[in-house]
Design a protein that fits this description.
Two-component system sensor protein, no kinase domain protein, 2 helices, kinase activity, mainly alpha, 0% strand, transferase, transmembrane helix
Length: 68
């Protein structure tokens, strides 16, 4: 039983790290885009659109992993 709990904790930690990286990538891209000379408002729109594109996949992941 303890082994299963440790495995679940490890699995959830890996999921957390992967999704954190996925959500932070647009912010990292924003930093480089602003450094490259793009307007902040334009870059924020790109980040928002990126997050809105990622959101359905995140919701499906949560549904599959925790509900089904």
């Amino acid at each position: 039983m303890e082994r299963v709990r440790k495995q679940q904790l490890l699995e959830q930690s890996i999921y957390g790290v992967i999704w954190s990286v996925i959500f932070f990538l647009p912010l990292i891209g924003e930093y480089f885009a602003v450094s490259g000379g793009l307007e902040k408002e334009e870059v924020r729109t790109l980040v928002r659109d990126s997050w809105l594109g990622i959101l359905p996949f995140f919701m499906l992941f949560l549904l599959n992993n925790y509900v089904l």
